[in-house]
Amino acid sequence: MADCAAVKAQLCKTNLMRLGGAAAKAILDACKGAGIEVERRDCLQRCPQCNVAAIAIVDGMPVGAATGEELAEQIASLTP
Question: Is residue 3 part of a domain?
């Protein structure tokens, strides 16, 4: 039986810096706790959203929230 492919999340480095240490840590911890593979990229090509919200691309699907903590909860809820 083949293993399921890992869920992958792309996070914008600039967005993480803008959100600040605690929020960025919450997002990274949520990904780690959910077994999500994280790739930090310089840009996700979603600058209008990035400047006003917390964003990620999880398995090709954009995910956004008003705060880093809310984004962390959304990312964690994407895995069983």
Answer: no
